[in-house]
Amino acid sequence: VSSIKYPRPRSALGGRVLRNKYLLLSIIFALATGFTLPSMLVGIYSILGLWMLYKIFQLSNFPNFPKNFQNKNIFEFKLFFKKNSQWLIPLVIFFCITFISLIYNLWITGFYPWKALVETDLYVNRTAFPYLNYLLALGPVGMLGLVGAFLVFLLKKERLYWSSFWVLGMFILILVFDKIRWHNQTRFLEVGPELPLSILAVLTLSVIGTVFGKAKTWFVLICCLVILATAGFLFAISIKAQTAFIDHKVLGSYPPLSLGNFVVYPVKTVMEGVNFIAQKAQDQEVTLSGYITGNHIGAYAGKFVYVGHGSQTVHFYQEKQPLAIEFYQGRMSQEKAQQFLRENRIKYVFYGPEEKTYGQYPLQANFLREVFRSGDVVIYKVNF
Asked: Shortest CA distance to 328 belongs to which of 303, 304, 353?
């Protein structure tokens, strides 16, 4: 009976093994995150950094910090770190090991072809971040969650500190990188702020609901159901509106490919041509096409293309896209055109709806042999 009421504490050795196990798993998952989505790992660092500052302030008798902290002698510092080594040492180990993934990303994006991703992200696709508009776009959860992030500290809800650190850390990173042109600030929206905002929004509703006394639980439940129902309704309406918009573009005079800032369905004849490239092109053979067709070939055929997505094609804006257009327009001499194809290992020339907006040179080039035709899509093979 005694053991049921008062469970025996875990041994020091067992507790240490369990902590080491959690530390190892955290490092493994953080490394995987850092290699695949560096902004998420930086977001984790911001959360842990805020939590570490909180612990230091708390253990330094805040608000008398930094006066008390400055008056401490060396012995007191040693005692401070000894008492808190249980969480401080694993945290330092975590930072040191997982930072390897960020060093790798900094190294690999320092040269081409991966440097093209950074250049496009910073100088081509970088846009201003409208803070108020983004917050309003989150709906009631955004405003309620942000209020809850501060209520957590006012009410000293320590169990929800992590949610507040999550939200505040994201906004701090956005503010910092909005001023420092080293990383696109919008990437930090990928750290998933919607989850902690939802938790903190419930806290705000709970605080507001105290005015209803015993009916507080019903107030919070009804508010949550209304928010969920509204979000679901808006989601359904949005999907329906986007689908209808695409359908009307198909019925209208829009091109069959997204030759601009709009989305359409994959074109059957283009996809048939992409499947042909997937079956016939060898691994090292390159296909010349427009950049939108090149995106389809890269995604669905898994073959090399001369131009594709702007941020994934080295020197896309400065060199490659202009040269591709120059070829299709026939502004190259035959010798230069053949040299262009030979130097870039181009074996197939795709001529479909997108490429026809550039020019008609493939129709008259005598060194191109037709190997595929489906509707308005023709694929030529370089014959020299």
From this structure: 353
Q: How far apart are CA 286 and CA 350, in angstroms?
A: 11
Between CA 117 and CA 102 the distance in angstroms is: 16
d(CA 96, CA 348): 48
pLDDT digits (tens, 9 = 90+) for 203-261: 999 999 988 888 989 999 999 999 999 989 988 998 898 888 878 777 776 666 766 66
CA distance 15 to 21: 10
pLDDT digits (tens, 9 = 90+) for 295-315: 899 889 999 999 988 777 877
Task: Assess whether pLDDT exceeds 60 at residue 358.
Answer: yes
Task: With beta carbons less than 8 A apart as the criterion, state whether 274 and 301 touch.
Answer: yes
Pair type for strands 346-351 and 377-382:
antiparallel
Please report which helix (H) or strand (E) contains residue 382, including its range: strand 377-382
In one-letter notation, the amino acid at residue 203 is L
Closest CA to 147 of 211, 207, 103: 207
- Residue 252, classified by CB atoms within 10 Å of its CB into exposed (0-12), middle (13-18) or buried (19+), is exposed
Question: Burial, 307: exposed, middle or buried (Cβ in 10 Å; 0-12, 13-18, 19+)?
Answer: buried
Closest CA to 42 of 132, 138, 119, 106: 106
**What's the CA gap between 105 and 61, in Å, rounded?**
39
The answer to whether the beta carbons of residues 40 and 33 sit under 8 Å apart is yes
pLDDT at 335 > cutoff 50: yes
